[in-house]
Amino acid sequence: MKNLYFTFITCLLILMIQGCSKFEGGQSVPAYISIDSIQLQIPGTVSLHGITPSAQISDAWVYVDDILIGAFELPATFPVLHHGDCRITIRPGVLLNGINTTRERYPFYENFENNFILKEDSVTKINPVNVNFKPITTNDGNYYVKIIANENFEDINTIFDTMTGSSTMIVRESTSQIFSESDLPAKKILYNNWVGKISLDTEHPTCKIILKDKYEDMPIISYLADDYQAVFVEFDYLSNHDFMIGTETFYNTSGSEYNDFLGTYSNSQWKKLYVNLTNRIINDQNNNADAFKIYIIAELAAGETSAEIYIDNIRWMHFIK
């Protein structure tokens, strides 16, 4: 079933393209493009802010001479009715909220662009495909990424406090304790020396943590240009238990309220989650919200005696101009 959805889209586009006058000369034999993976690179100016190259780019949104060919789950090889010297643009795609059916281009990663010679009935391999994290500062008046919160647990002090009703706290754990010796060098590129750990047991069945500081400088998201209306939390996790992420929303006239947003499932391998808070923030701002916090809640399930949750590379961000 892999690539079935994307193959259908591509076939439909090919049928449409074949009827377009732009493709003069009656080309009927396609060229092929092959992409194995897309890797995130962190420019030096971004890495200075503690941003790691942790990413889970699942899809490639491919354009040939600015024409959308389709979105493809990676790795992928697919046909295109173009040939000759062509400009190829690849936009990185992710699973929004970890759901397979909600695939979208990720706005915080740059596009890959280059020219390639496409030949009929021949495969052009585009590897490697490296993309950068978008700028987090600018002097030219363009949009840039505003990092609201960034936690990679390298500092002994975390950005979290416990909430009322919590019986335990997130603590730092050395990566040497959770990765094998052979696996550790590669993992340290993504996770450095420390990760966050939540341990639950029958005496400490609940962990509720929330950002220490509320964020009061959120721009009116709906006022931004369409491509920059984005508020995301992303993080890596490894767990044998479910947990919840949500927002505390503050209103200028009526206190605050807690809103559970997304529940995660246990995962035996490290996974990147891209949590799309855009519509939640827009709706809250339409109701006069003026500040926000992020929280995480884990509660030991009935019948369970223990659970462990590892979290790292937490980034909460939006665009600003």
Which key phrases capture this entry?
single chain; 321 residues; mainly beta; Jelly Rolls; 2 domains; 21 strands
Account of the protein in words:
This protein has four helices and 21 strands. The chain has helices at 4-18, 44-47, 184-191, 278-286, and strands at 31-35, 38-41, 59-64, 67-73, 76-80, 84-95, 103-105, 112-118, 123-125, 129-132, 144-151, 160-162, 171-174, 194-201, 206-211, 231-239, 243-251, 255-264, 267-276, 289-299, 306-320. It folds into two domains: 4-132, Immunoglobulin-like (Sandwich); 144-320, Galactose-binding domain-like (Jelly Rolls), CATH 2.60.120.260. The strands form five sheets. Strands 11, 13, 14, 16, 19 and 21 form a six-stranded antiparallel β-sheet that branches. Strands 3, 4, 6, 7 and 8 form a five-stranded antiparallel β-sheet that branches. It is mainly beta and 321 residues long. Helices cover 11% and strands 46% of the residues. The longest helix has 15 residues, at 4-18.
